[in-house]
Amino acid sequence: MGYNVSDANSYLVITGGGIEDVKICKKAWVWSWQKHTRISISPFDFEITLQAMTIEKLQFSLPAVFTIGPEDQMDALCKYAKILTGRGANNANKASNEATPTGRNHVQDIVKGIIEGETRVIVSGMTMEEIFKERQVFKTKVIENVQSELNQFGLKIYNANVKELQDTAGSEYFKFLSRKAHEGASNQAKIDVANAQMIGNIGEAEKRGKTRQEISKIDAATAVLETQRKSEKAKADAELTETQTRLNMGINLANIQATRQAEAKDAELQRDVETKRAEMELERRRATDLVHAKINREAAQQKADAAFYTDNKTADALLYKQQQDAEAKFLTINKTADANLYSRQKDAEAGYLRSVREADAAFYAAKKEAEGVAEKAKAYEQLSKVLGGPQGLLQYMMLQDNTYEKLALANAKAVNGLQPKITVWNTGAAAGSGEGEDQVVGPIRNILQSLPPLLTTINEQTGIAPPGWLAKMGEGSGSGSQALEVKAKGKGLTNGNIPSHQGGK
Known about the structure:
Blueprint: E1 2-5, E2 10-16, E3 23-25, E4 27-30, E5 34-40, E6 44-53, E7 59-70, H1 74-83, H2 91-95, H3 104-124, H4 128-133, H5 135-150, E8 155-162, H6 173-254, H7 258-386, H8 390-400, H9 403-414, E9 422-424, H10 442-462, E10 471-474, E11 483-487, E12 494-495, E13 502-504
Antiparallel strand pairs: 1-4, 2-3, 2-5, 6-7, 7-8, 9-13, 10-11, 11-12
């Protein structure tokens, strides 16, 4: 029993009498019927190296460092204290007043299992390129998924650092990828150096060529100017010499040939004038003919262009009309074919439905007929049981269809013209002493008296005996006729050999 105070980075966890569940506080009185321990909320670091596989079935090693500790909230501390404390703590730690990371190894094992499971789930749905390019997204997903699992233990991720991916044993993926990047950078550097050298050499050659071109242009311009100056000087000297010569000739010949030269000069000038005039006229006529020829050529060309344009447009119009006619004909044929196809389809569907309906009707009729026959067979079976068997049913049906009368008629026709045996039965009132009988029994007696002659005649002529429940045939005397015994309910009437029976031929 005593007053206990925890450190700044720890809490007291008290259980026992007077406490419903768990009490977490910084300081409290602890009585003898209570127990207490200290839990530290200081986060701890641990490193893991995870073996994972991407969606491309590439294995790699993922080293990471996580900083995890109990969350400084009462609900989280209660979860942490009830679930994760007490494991791995010895008696010495319980007796000491210092807060210890109780069950720290157990917590690390749980966190490691959660991180490995969630990380493998995330990595299995990503490619290696996505993991490289979206490192922050990958890290965020891992933290969110792991944190959602750690909430049930009251733990919190304070920091997560995912290191560089590494090759697993027997894999050289990252090694070759690094070599590829290195070789690509080296080759690109060589290409950049060669491009820079090429640009420098080309620029230098261009500058040299432009320098030579400018020098050549200046030298050529200078030479041209010098030649022009020399030509102008020579021309000026020639003109001066010619002028001096003409002056001298004029002075020397002025006095001697003044008249001749004047006349010759006049004739020469006149000739030159005529020559110039003729040349002018010739040039004028040539120009006129040339203008007319150009005009005619241009007019002919315009006419030809107009005719060509007209023919071209006519051909285009004819081609367009033919195309439209062909398209209209094609559409007409297509629509007609579609209509015929649709009509055939509908006829086929109607024929199919008609055949199906007829088949269904025939099947239904046959089914009903079969059912009727089956019901009739059942009724005949029940009737056969009532009539004493198949023989009784057969005789009953023969009576129903008047088979006996038909057979008698057929036999009569068969023996027509012969001398058949005729049996006469007298069943009238004179046959017995009916005068004194009761009038109620008379109709029944008359019915019973009418049966023996009929049944005896059928038996004698066809050999068919009546059923046992109706009458019993016995051996007679004399002419070989049989005695008939008819049984009837009521008064027990029995009719044996009737005295009024007469036989004749």
